[in-house]
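Before relying on records like the one below, remember that each one covers exactly one chain. Contacts with other chains, cofactors or solvent are not represented anywhere in the record.
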Amino acid sequence: MGFVRRHPILTSAFALVAVVLGILGTTAVAVWRAAHTDDARTIGHADLIVVLGAAQYNGRPSPVFQGRLDQAKILFDEKFAPDVLVVGGNQPGDATTEAVAGRDWLVSKGLPAAAVFADPVGTDTLESLRGAAGFMRDHGMKSAFLVSDPWHNLRIRRMASDLGMTAYVSATWHSAARSQWTRLNGYARETLAYLYYRFLHR
């Protein structure tokens, strides 16, 4: 008690650090748990499969993007949804967009062209999900499986829910998590990204 009375500022600083560490720890656990959740194990059907874009090179999906597209193809082939929407814009100098590159790849792998759509807008996750939400409203859809990397699950499900979607997650591990360092880096970045989103959009 004497220490508290003599050093109230230091004590308050310690308390603040403890709170911050508690928030970071709790969020990190939530990110990890969400990453290991596949709603396709319990949810049999949704209106749409939404693939979050990633890097593409002149129309050729990067390995990370291709992993997401592979997962979307599995969900479509197993009839979890009748349509697929690929979202994502482009970077300066790109010849095409993530959405168009992803759609073309899925069609080249045998998905019916009439069942695969591209929404080539958005340079970040939230913008892309806003585009997906608009697409779903325009087509009378309410529920969607979101396909991205596993550590994104918590944030994209929260964003989609905030945008009015009934959102499920079904991520791919095949190309995104090739090393333990990739996983740890993904969890750390997403812990901070999720907190940034929650505090910015409260």
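The two ends are 37 Å apart (CA to CA).
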